[in-house]
Structures are given as structure tokens and as C-alpha cells.
Design goal:
about 200 residues, alpha/beta, 5-stranded parallel β-sheet, single chain
């Protein structure tokens, strides 16, 4: 059975990221060969600040997320881009999820091509009020905030879907954004069904 771990990285109760997250996941429902585990950062109990660095005690919920992520075939992250970066609480999840010695290890030479998560794929869906072009001009920090730890863990297949122009007068239609999400979901569904 293929497994998807889906992380909703929007700290708001409502928003485009949440809507698209659920639309994406509908493509996997009804497939008995796919298990979906969802995590919402609004509901996770943890300290995003790592007050003791990598000696910070992990909460039960964060431990469960890490165990599910380590056994997943596809990791989904959906989040808004604020000031060209991920929301602060999502950064905290990233710091806990990609834990030294677990998802990668320099000491044991388990990173990049030899990383423990090397057979996984990741899908990043992020929403931007402005244009993706502006995000690219600043080296796409909201993408690299996740891509680098994924790469270090061995997840080299990182696919990004950007939904931009949401706050601009040149906003695309909802149908355009829905089609973009559908294309991404269908590609990932094909990947999972081949497992």
C-alpha cells in the first residue's frame, strides 16, 4: 500500500492554501491502495523554537508525524508564501521533522544520495499573493526552505506547484488554479499507483 503524508502548513483557519490542499487530496480518495495521513500545523502541539536545539524533547504528535513521514512514499506540503518564505510555524515543523540523526546523518554518511528517505517523492504546493517571477528573483526561499532539508534526507524528487497572483488585478481564474492542482495530483497519483 502506498502512503501519503500531507502537511497543511497554513496557520490560518481559512485560505487558498487550505482549499487547494483539500482539492489535491480528493484525487487520492477512493483508491484503496493509498493511505493518507494528514497533519495540520494549527493542531500540532510542539514548540517551534527548538529551545534546546537538537536536544529539545519531542512531543508525541511530532514523533507520530516523523514516524509517518519516514514510512511515506509521498510527502505533501501546502502553505502560503509570506515575505518570500514559509510561515514561521511551518519552519518550526521543518526543524523538528528533519532531525539530525533521523532523517539524515553526516556522522553515518546518510544524506543526499544515501539519505534514509531516498525512495520518496515530495510535492510542494505554495500560494503567493504576488508573482512567482518575484519569488524567483529572490532565489525562491519559500521553496528552498523545504527543498534543502528534503534533499539532505535523500528526497531528490521534489516537485513544486506555485499558485501565484492571488492578490493582484491580473489574478487567474479559479478554474486555472484548479487545473494546475489537478495536473500535479494526477502525476503524483500515477507515481503512487506504480508502487
Amino acid at each position: 500500500m502506498a502512503k501519503v503524508v500531507a502537511i497543511m502548513g497554513d496557520p490560518r483557519e481559512k485560505g487558498t492554501s487550505r482549499e487547494l490542499f483539500h482539492k489535491y487530496l480528493t484525487f487520492f480518495q477512493g483508491h484503496s491502495a493509498i493511505e493518507i495521513k494528514t497533519y495540520d500545523i494549527r493542531e500540532l502541539a510542539f514548540d517551534p523554537n527548538l529551545p534546546e536545539g537538537y536536544r529539545t524533547e519531542q512531543t508525541t504528535e511530532m514523533t507520530n508525524l516523523k514516524q509517518d513521514a519516514s514510512s511515506a512514499d509521498l510527502l505533501l506540503f501546502a502553505y502560503p508564501v509570506w515575505w518570500f518564505n514559509v510561515p514561521a510555524v511551518l519552519k518550526g515543523v521543518i526543524d523538528h521533522l528533519f532531525w539530525r540523526g533521523e532523517s539524515y546523518s553526516f556522522k553515518d554518511k546518510k544524506y543526499l544520495l544515501t539519505g534514509p528517505w531516498r525512495k520518496k517523492r515530495a510535492r510542494l504546493i505554495y500560494t503567493i499573493g504576488g508573482m512567482e517571477l518575484q519569488h524567483r528573483l529572490f532565489a525562491r526561499p519559500a521553496l528552498t526552505a523545504l527543498r534543502y532539508p528534503l534533499w539532505m534526507s535523500g528526497v531528490l524528487s521534489v516537485r513544486a506547484t506555485s499558485i501565484d497572483r492571488l492578490d493582484l488585478s491580473i489574478r487567474k481564474s479559479n478554474e486555472y488554479y484548479d487545473k494546475k492542482i489537478a495536473r500535479a495530483a494526477k502525476k503524483d497519483l500515477h507515481f503512487l499507483l506504480k508502487k
